[in-house]
Structure formats: structure tokens, C-alpha cells
Amino acid sequence: MIDKIRKEAKRILEEGIVDVVIGFEKGSIPLKSTPVFIEKPEDAEKLIWNKFCENNLARYLRRFKGKKVGIVANGCCSRAIVNLIIEGQVNRDDIYIIGTPCEGMLSRRKMLKDGKSEKNVDDSYLYINCKYCSHRNPVIYDYLVSEKIEEKPAQFPDVEEIEKLSPEERWTKFREEVNKCIRCYACREACPMCYCEVCFVDVNNPKWLEGGFAESDVEFWNLGRAFHLAGRCVDCGACERACPMEIKILNLTRKLNKDVKELYDYEAGLDIKQKPLLGEFRFEDKEEFIR
Amino acid sequence: MNKAFEPKIATFLCNWCSYAGADLAGVSRLQYPSYTRVIRVPCSGRINPFYIIRGLYEGLDGVWVSGCHPGDCHYQTGNYYARRRFSLIKNLLEFVGIEKERVQFSWVSASEGGKFADVAKKVSEDVKKVGPADKMIREKKLYD
Amino acid sequence: MKRVSKKKFYNRLNELIGQYSVYAPCGDKIEEIKDVSELSIDGLLTRLPSKTYMFPQNEELFRWDKGKKIEVNIPDRKSILFGIRPCDARAIATFDPTFDTEEFPDPYFQKRRKNTIIISMGCNEPEETCFCTSFGSGPFDASGSDLLLVEMEKDFLGIGREEILELFGFEEGKGEKDFEEIKTQAEKKVEKINLKGIKEKLDALRETNFFKEISNKCINCGACTFLCPTCYCFDIEDMERVDGGKRMRNWDSCMFKIYTYETSGNNPRRQEELRMQQRIMHKFNYYPLLYDMYGCVGCGRCVSYCPVNFDIREIIKLINNAN
User: Fold this and answer.
1) Is the alpha carbon torsion for A145, A149, A154, A155 positive or negative?
2) Percentage of residues in chain A with pLDDT exceeding 90?
3) Which of A138, A212, A214, B125 is deepest in the core (most CB within 10 A)?
4) CB contact (8 A) between residue A291 and residue B57
5) Which residue range(s) make up the domain with C79?
6) Chain A: nearest CA to C245, how far in angstroms?
7) How far apart (Å, rounded) are the C-alpha atoms in residues A124 and A107?
8) Do residues C55 and C28 both lie within one domain?
């Protein structure tokens, strides 16, 4: 698989189809792969693909406006690209997608805590959104690196477990998780869909919430960001992986993804002809909660 | 508690239907609790779900949004878009543990003065039952 | 070498808890402890650095009431900061040229600095990402601490100021050889990168494409700046309340796009590479130029926690090779 990625990247650079290829190379700390930007065909040898390629590369696409970009994309990354196309942030013609079917990424922090190394690659360390992933194959691509793999239906047992708790228990759980937040905004920057010029937390007119990390502010920030991703989140998990305080952000975003799928049968980033979730409506939309 | 709990409920009413319905309730001398503080907006589609989160952040005990019935929106489709936003924000707030009685929605038309008073009574009762808001409230006073 | 049993040391610390406010690492951050039993300094480096104590994330500068009376409350209590790592202790000294000056004194920082006894714990087992030896320091460098402890099986060895050693009952004892061994073993594990002439090399790279090439993968998330013990950028915010208000100083980050966003709409550091250039220059060029010290202590938190593995050690190697 890695050979095919390198060969294809080399080819599209040599033939001038793209100016730069975004992919992963070996990181400088254990169990980590790091994004790399290849501009010379001979550097394509640096590209790798393994179970530690946990960042979402679609996050970098908007930086290369006006250039032709090649990108190594798995399922969630390709969905993010589709979403960016739907929202008018990138042009389909400017991107060459090297699609890689993906079986999930392993949690390096958990593995390091248990003293595991690269030799014991073990699926019990899969990130939660990878474990229940329903789009392991890229949904859009110009070149597929290997055979497509079997898809599983969308399922949210992690969210359902929390839904079973009582309101008081849910509030305690939410509060404990979210109070670790230091408002560093790593989650926002790692997310390919968070590209607002000025985020709602930084806007001064209206001033939605205050600076600092009082409980109420930190709770508003996390709820607000999760809500702004309703119908746009592609469940890549980059936010939770970027968080230096290890907050379980996926609890909130996956809850919204579950609702969006159950109420409106919608999943973000599957087809470039889709309309954004909150930009359309159906007459039959559920309204039992409305008096 | 020396005094009975009097909740503060921010009430967003769309100008063309719900606000007119509330007006009709007033003109018809229908009684309903005075806990609802009305904010008139042109359409329920104008409601940014963050207003609801912000309301709870400021310490309000409840937020009630009311608009035109689907199909009757003065701007044709505003309430359809609003409907999607409302269901998502309500589910999210309930999921993190905010009591579901605090955030409520209704469709009230301009001729439904009676319904407006009814819903106002029900919302006030629900919010009174769950008590004063105590979650996600920002610091109000500096000096005790 | 000065030596004291762990039991005696902790008993003494417990006794001092009334006279001094004692702050120690508790899990992720540094908090005040009321009893020695609350201590848990097993993890080598706390996630959040020593600056959470010396330069808190939210600090109230002053408050006012409706009558516009202004109240300035600068905490003024004798304190002990216990159990931080030597790199964190040295990092506090890097704040001095900026906050503890005669021309522009920062009373909040100054008072806290004057009132605090810093007791650090040497690193018998440094992390993979540590590189403190690159700065002429090491896992047992006592500069920056009032007392450095070396953990043995049942005792602590102590290096530091006479009066602090006396305060905790240290006495002369054996341990010189053991200490040398522990020190050598630990220093072997720490990566030593070559910083010779880094300031001049950076000067030469100033107008080139170097920073553009290296900063492509940085997502400007700010995690490195928040976890860095020497970073001190801040933002001032006025918070209105029903009965008055307060002015707060909150952490900010030069990596945020809006850090240099001006009211006119102009943003001098709009591009990512300009922000990355500023960060690296601040730590390895501007600080040496102004104060003859580096703005980095080699704690390695930025390396472990960067989401995209932007490794400052690799960057310095690239800078060395670029010339």
C-alpha cells in the first residue's frame, strides 16, 4: 500500500498535475506520524501510511488556494474534503485525491501508558470513532490505493450508554470532562470544518462568552463548538486527539452525529451534490417536541 | 424558601403569528402567569440557537420559543429551517443534563389566543417544577 | 552531602503548612495542598507547567464597585512551591527580565516571586522528549530553585540555600557517589542538541523562505504556548458584573491568528509562517539578544503534546544544517 502511495505521489508531481502532495511521514517521537508537504518528486519516498496517521489532512487544504494539491485521504479525510467543496471552500478541480481505505487509528497515549511499542499493534487501542466507523473507504478519490474494505453500518453505542444515565449523572459527567478545558483551541484548529475567520468565542460584538476559564464559559464554548458542527462533523476525531487535556470531545460531536442520522437520515460529506443539513428542510421533519 | 419561586422565562415570539396570538390572549383577558418575558422577533427562523444557550448562561430559568405553524410562515420557510435547529439544540442540551423542561418550543398562530395562554401556563408550571436554574450560569455578582 | 529522611522532610513540610501556603503538582496542574497526604508527584512533568502558579491563567488585576471605588488585591502570603522539576524552576527565572524590572514592575508577579520558596525535585528518570542539557543545564540543575531534592530510596539529598536546608532539617551525610551515579545515568537519557551560534544562524535566516517551509504543518492551535513554562503572552479583559466589574489578565497565544489583529482590520502576522518565525526568534534570538538567556528550558512539553508533532529539536537541527 505504501509503495503505491509513493509511486502515485511521485507521478503526479513529475507530471505537474499537482504542485504539492500532503501526506504523512515518520514522526520524531514514538508511535506518531506527522504531516508532510512534498514538493519534489524524489521526496515522495518519505510518505508512509500506518495506524498512527491520526490527523485530518483536509485541514490544510484552504492554505493552498490557487495551487493544485495532492492529498492522501482515508474515509473521514475524504468526507471532510467533500464538505469543504459543498461549503465552497475548495475547488474539486484543484485537488487530486489518493484514496486509502483505512481500518482505524490507534490511541498513542493509551499505548504509551501501557508500555506498548510499534511491534504490538493491537486493535483494542482503536480510537472510539474509528471503532464504530461507518465510512472506512474514501467517498471520493482520483486514485484508489488498495481494494475497498467492508463497511459497517453507523452505530453509536458510546453515545447510547450516556443517554441511559439520569440527567444529574449526565450533567456531572459533562461537567467533569469539560472543566479540564484550558481554552487553548487546539480542537478548533485541528478540525477541518472550523475555518471561520473569527470564531464565535473571539467575536466582540456580540460578546457571547467571556475569556478565562470559569466553568460556565468553558461549558458554553464546548457546547457551542459542537453545535456549530451539527451536520458538518465527519467524525474524524482530530479534535479529541489534539486536545492536550484529553477531554472526551467526541461525546458531544458524536451525539449530534447520531441525532442528525436518526432524525434526518443525513451524514455529512458523502456526496458533493448534497446540501448542508441546516440549509435545507423537509416538510416531514420530526416535530413531536413542539407543542 | 420565604417566597415562592418565580421563574424568569425568556419568550421569543415571532411577530406575525405568535406575538399576535399573545396579543389576542391579552385582549381576550385570558389569564396566564407573568413569568414569561417576551422578546419579539420577525420570524422563528431568526432565532440563533446560541440565544438559548446564552439565556441559560445568563441565569434564566427557562427559554420558550414560539413561531408560526409549518406552512403558515410569513416568510414562507423560516420556521422550517428553525425546526431543524430547535430539535438539535434541544437534544444537545438535554444530553448534557440540562433539564428538558427548561427549553420549550411551540407553534401558535395569530388566532390562537387560547392556545397561547395554555402553553404559557404549561411552560411556567414545568419550569417551576424543576426549580431555579443552577447550571452553566455565569458569575453575576462580585461583592457578596 | 546534605541529607534528610523522607519521613522527616514530609513531617516538617506538614508542620509548615499553617505558616506557608504550600503549592504542589496535583495530577495535571499545580494546586494548593492542605496536607502532605494530598501530594502526588509521581508523574515526571505535570501537564500544565509551573507558570500556572507564578503567572496564573486568570489573574484579577483590580475590581471596582458601582461607586467606582477601585480595589487592588495582590496576594501577599508566604508560600512554598514544592515538587516541580528543575526545568520548570529555571523557567520562572526567565520571567524576571520581563516582569521583575525597575522600569516596568509587575507587582502581581513580583510579590508572588518574593514570597515563594521554590523546592524542585531532580529527575532520576527523564522523559524521552527532555532536552534540558542543551542549555548547559541538566536534570539536577539547582539554579532557579531555592532547594533541589534528589530522591533516594528512603532519603532526600539536598542542594540549595543554607537557610532552606536548615529549615527542613538537612544534615551532613553520605551520598556523593550515589548522586554522581544517578546524575550521570539521567543525563545520558536527555538529548543534547547543538545550540552554538543559534542566534546568528537565525539572523541569517530572517528574510529567507526557511520559516515558510517548516511551518506548513503547524495548525496554530496554541497548545504549545499554553503548556510552555516560559511563554507569557496575555490578554486583558474587562468583565462587567451586576454590582461592578473586574479587570482580568488571561493567557493568550502568539500562535492564534487574531493575536495581532488590529482594530483597523490589519493583521501584521496574518500568515502562519510569520507567527512561527516570531515564536522561534523570541525563544532563540530575541531573548538571547536582550537578556543573554534562552527563552526555552528544554522541558519537551511542546514536543509531546503537539497534535502534528512539530518538533523544535528537529527544527534546530535544520537551522544548524541550513547554514
Assistant:
1) negative
2) 80
3) A138
4) no
5) 2-189
6) 13
7) 9
8) yes
Closest Cα in chain B to A179: B136
In a domain, A271, yes or no: yes
Same domain, C144 and C220: no
Q: In this predicted complex, what is the ipTM?
A: 0.92
Q: How near does any CA of chain B get to the CA of A210, in Å?
A: 9
Query: Does A190 contact C at CB distance below 8 Å?
Result: yes
Q: What is the pLDDT of residues A6-20, one digit of tens each?
A: 999 999 999 999 999
Query: C-alpha cell of A172?
Result: 456531572
pLDDT tens string A196-221: 988 999 888 889 998 888 899 999 99
**Record: contact B92-A173, CB cut-off 8 A:** no
The total domain count for chain C is 2
Of A178, A156, A168, A172, residue with least CA distance to A249: A178
- What does the alpha-carbon distance between residue A28 and residue C308 come to, in Å, rounded to a whole number? 11
Mean confidence (pLDDT) of chain C: 89
Chains that touch B (3 or more CB pairs under 8 A): A, C
Confidence check: pLDDT of A123 > 80: yes
Which residues in chain A have their CB less than 8 angstroms from residue B89's CB? 227
- The chain C residues in contact with chain A (CB within 8 A) are 28, 47-48, 57-58, 128-129, 216-217, 219-223, 225-227, 235, 237, 239, 248, 250, 253, 256, 258, 272, 303-305, 307-311, 313-314
Residues paired with C82 in a beta bridge: C119
Q: Identify whether A284 is part of a domain.
A: no
Residues C131 and C209 in one domain: no
**Chain-chain contact of C227 with A36 (C-beta, under 8 angstroms):** no
Q: Decide if pLDDT at C323 tops 70.
A: no
Q: What is the pLDDT of residue B4?
A: 82
| Triad C307, C310, C313: Cα angle to 5° | 140
Q: Going by C-beta distance under 8 Å and a sequence separation of 6 or more, which residues neighbour residue A258? A: A156, A159
Distance in angstroms (rounded) separating the CA atoms of residues C297 and C145: 14
Task: Using the structure block, give the residue that is written with the C-alpha cell 508542620.
Answer: C15
Contacts of C241 in chain B (CB under 8 A): 139-142
In a domain, A198, yes or no: yes
Residue C30 shares a structural domain with residue C165: yes
**In chain B, positions 59-88, which contact chain A (CB-CB < 8 Å)?**
70, 77, 80-81, 83-88
Q: Is the pLDDT of residue C155 over 90?
A: no
Cα nearest neighbour of A253 on chain B: B92
In this prediction, residue C41 carries a pLDDT of 64
pLDDT at A160 exceeding the cut of 90: yes
Question: End of a domain among C125, C158, C189?
Answer: C189
Question: A136 touching C, CB under 8 A?
Answer: no
Do C146 and C216 lie in a common domain? no
Is the distance from CB of C168 to CB of C16 less than 8 angstroms? no
Same domain (yes/no): C206, C310? yes
**Residue A13 is part of which domain span?**
2-279
Q: What CATH number is associated with residue B89?
A: 3.40.50
Counted domains in chain B: 1
Q: Which residues of A156-195 are buried (b: 16+ CB within 10 A; e: fewer)?
A: bebbeebeeeebeebbebbbebbebbbbbbbbbbbbbbbe
Show which of C150, C169, C189 is a domain's final residue: C189
Pair (C140, C236) in one structural domain: no
Q: Do residues C181 and C45 share a domain?
A: yes
What's the number of domains chain A is made of?
1
Q: Do A212 and C57 touch (CB under 8 A)?
A: yes
Domain-located, residue A94? yes
Q: Which of A227, A247, A277 to mutate to test the interface with B (most CBs of B within 10 A)?
A: A227
Inter-chain contacts counted by CB atoms under 8 A, chains A and C: 88
Kindly provide the residue ranges of all beta strands, DSSP E only, lying in B52-121, ordered along the sequence.
62-67, 103-107
- Domain hosting B31: range is 9-130
pLDDT digits (tens, 9 = 90+) for A52-103: 999 999 999 999 988 999 999 999 999 999 999 999 999 999 999 999 999 9
